[in-house]
Design brief:
The chain is α/β, with parallel strands linked by helices. The protein is 23% helix and 29% strand. Helix 1 runs parallel beside helix 2 and helix 1 crosses helix 5. The longest helix has 19 residues.
Length: 380
């Protein structure tokens, strides 16, 4: 199928996924243009090389190219949130906010000229995300609805990061990589002789890349000695600042030795088990640790709940569904319980490392695919 009258603007990041996205869409007959989103320019980061690579891709594909400067908005909407959450003792996921605020906020609105009263610059926006958008026939309606689904490649699936999309946006978004495996994308990029075909994937924060998060936090908050405690209050060591820790983490603290006096009671260091972070008391600068079973949870609350389609809430209330509590995690069977606008997720079995500040994404399984319903932020 060709799409000669449809224009699509692709967010070119300088990586192989967005490059192959542009290549595939052009091959399908779309009028393709490329845009690089300038969001970060801290010395030592990979912004400039990525921008150059994005330009090389555009030149190779012979498509228009330009740069949009969102550095100010990225700092205020994403990075400040990132710091605020760590300061509160929570572990944020800035990539989710990056997608909702920048890629499918500012960039989407710029391309479609949302709320500007002008003709759109394009019919669609596209990115190199591994996810799928399907057209669905709504029950008892002639109107066709759209749904966001998990990708074919379960190891690369990025639907978790996209749960804050809105149903009205889906008809204007293209995710051509959702039906491919990552290995297939590498082969396509190589066959097309794209200049970034062999480039390594970026594994860091959205638009920043492979950066040392601990270093960022240290530059912002410094260090401050605090106690490492067991759940009963026994002090067993010290740390350099609670903001360096997340639920389920091990190490990075100094344990007391046998010769040091404990504040509460004696502790047998000879039989000390493997310890994990099980709690963070930010106001007191205390990190609470315990054994693995103390990190396991079967239920937790979520806040700031967002539904891709608002009517989905009543449809799945107190019914079985599937959730992901981290991008790399499995789809877990669960139930969402609601009471007086409070939401509780109950898992079918205990899960390790459920961390406040991370997102829990809700799915409905349809045959072998998972439809994204929405999600919220884990609060406890």
């Amino acid at each position: 199928m060709t799409h000669n009258k449809n224009k699509v603007i692709v967010g070119l990041s300088g990586g192989v996924d967005s490059a192959t996205t542009a290549y595939l869409l052009k091959k399908q007959g779309y009028q393709v243009a490329g845009v690089y989103l300038q969001c970060w320019d801290m010395p030592g980061c990979a912004t400039d090389p990525n921008r150059k690579d994005a330009l090389k891709v555009a030149l190779k594909l012979e498509i228009p190219f330009q740069v949009l400067d969102f550095r100010k908005e990225y700092k205020t909407r994403v990075i400040e949130y990132f710091y605020k959450e760590y300061e509160a003792g929570r572990t944020p996921n800035p990539d989710i906010l990056c997608n909702s605020e920048i890629k499918f906020g500012l960039f989407y609105n710029w391309a479609l000229r949302q709320a500007q009263g002008k003709s759109p610059r394009a019919d669609f926006v596209a990115t190199g995300h591994y996810a799928k958008i399907h057209q669905l026939k709504a029950k008892n309606s002639e109107e066709n609805m759209y749904g966001l689904f998990s990708a074919k490649d379960t190891h690369k699936d990025q639907s978790y990061f996209l749960y804050r999309l809105r149903v009205e946006q889906l008809p204007h978004i293209l995710f051509p990589l959702g039906t491919f495996l990552k290995s297939e994308i590498r082969k396509l990029a190589s066959k097309a002789d794209l200049p970034v075909a062999a480039k390594k994937d970026s594994m860091g924060i959205c638009f920043i890349g492979d950066i040392d998060v601990s270093k960022m936090l240290k530059e912002r908050f410094g260090t401050k000695k605090g106690e490492v405690q067991l759940a009963d209050g026994t002090v067993i060591g010290e740390h350099e600042g609670y903001w360096f820790f997340t639920i389920g983490k091990r190490g990075n603290w100094r344990l007391k030795t046998k010769s040091e006096k404990l504040k509460t009671k004696k502790f047998d260091f000879a039989s000390l088990p493997k310890l994990y972070v099980i709690g963070i008391k930010s106001e007191e600068n205390i990190v609470v640790v315990g054994e693995r079973e103390e990190v396991m949870k079967t239920e937790f609350s979520i806040t700031d709940l967002h539904w891709i389609k608002s009517t989905d809430e009543s449809r799945i209330k107190n019914q079985g569904l599937w959730v992901k509590i981290r991008n790399t995690g499995e789809f877990l069977p669960a139930t969402l319980e609601t009471k007086e606008q409070r939401y509780k997720v109950v898992l079918s079995k205990p899960e390790f490392g459920v961390s406040s500040g991370q997102s829990c994404v809700l799915y409905q399984k349809i045959r072998e695919e998972y439809l994204v319903l929405g999600g919220g932020v884990i609060s406890a």
